[in-house]
Amino acid sequence: MKEVVAYVVTRHGYSQRRACGVVRQHRSTQRLVGRRDPRTAERQRMREIAAARVRYGYRRIHVLLRREGWAVGKNLVYRLYGEEGLTLRRGRPKRRKMALHREARCTPTRAHEAWSLDFVHDQLSDGQKFRALTVIDIYSREALAIEVGRRLRGEDVVAVLNRLVYRHGAPRCLFADNGGEFTGRLVDLWAYHHSVRMDFSRPGKPTDNAYIETFNGTLRDECLNLHWFGSIAEAQRQIEAWRRDYNESRPHSALDHMPPAEYAARAKILLAPMGASKTEN
Asked: Which one, 78, 114, 188, 220, has the greatest CB density within 10 A?
């Protein structure tokens, strides 16, 4: 309202008293000088974070600020976030129908008990298409691998799974859709050899594999849509860098705003005494 009074004074040559009467604002309000801290430093740091992580909302920016030692609350960050014009525009229509989700048939109680995998498609700057095989741990939401290549087949899926088994051990259950790369003989033989139960999504039901679908949406939103890849090698470097940042730095709302790697490490420490007591008995 102060801006309106100033406009009337400047545009029409009215006195401040008369302009306040026109817009029906008390003169004491017009002359009141705000004493609220402008939070210039916080605003600058928020802009820097938003420029580096363009798809982060105010909640994740608040988590990063608290990590750096800023004494700011969520409501303050929300207000500054809006005043600085950093609000994200998703452009996605909201669902107006109820969606019923199937109960997960394999519920992991610790990391590396259940993995989920799927393919993501994208293209290089010259129009050539490539694929990315994504594998996540359902319990910790950790991105275990993102394999990038022009053509990825069943043998490539098995190669990635073998690398992960060497690092973490074989899972108890594996979630995947009905793509030919997952339902073929090679993956079936691999699952039989490692005693892994395959849980395939029902046709036309991507919500049966909701965790990997959510992860793929985040990958596309925060990485694929923000970069132009000139070659497969460049795509591999950029996507691998994003995967590490996702695991080690990015706050995850489902994990109490902890990164997946930190959540997995903390869960491992909490479960260690339980496993030790069982061994002693």
From this structure: 114
SS3 126: coil
Q: Which CATH superfamily is domain 114-269 in?
A: Ribonuclease H-like superfamily/Ribonuclease H (3.30.420.10)
Residue 149 CA to residue 281 CA, distance in Å, equals 49
Model pLDDT for residues 171-228, shown as the tens digit of each residue: 999 999 888 889 888 999 999 999 999 888 887 888 888 899 999 999 999 999 998 9
Tell me the C-alpha distance between 207 and 214, whole Å: 10
User: How far, in Å, CA of 157 to CA of 170, rounded?
Assistant: 14
Helix (H) or strand (E) holding 116, with range, is strand 114-123
Q: What residue ranges do the domains of the chain occupy?
A: 1-31, 39-84, 114-269
Q: Classify the phi-psi angles of 251: left when phi > 0, otherwise alpha if psi is within -120 to 50, otherwise beta.
A: beta
Residues 6+ apart with CB under 8 A from 114: 106, 107, 108, 137, 138, 139, 171, 172, 173, 174, 175
Question: What pLDDT was estimated at residue 94?
Answer: 54
Predicted pLDDT of residue 214: 92
Estimate to the nearest angstrom the gap between the alpha carbon of 74 and the chain centroid: 19
Distance CA(253)–CA(255), nearest Å, equals 5
pTM listed for this prediction: 0.72
Query: pLDDT at residue 130 above 50?
Result: yes
Helix segments in the chain, DSSP class H: 2-12, 16-23, 27-31, 40-52, 58-67, 74-83, 154-168, 180-183, 185-193, 210-222, 232-248, 260-280
Checking if the pLDDT of 254 tops 50, the result is: yes
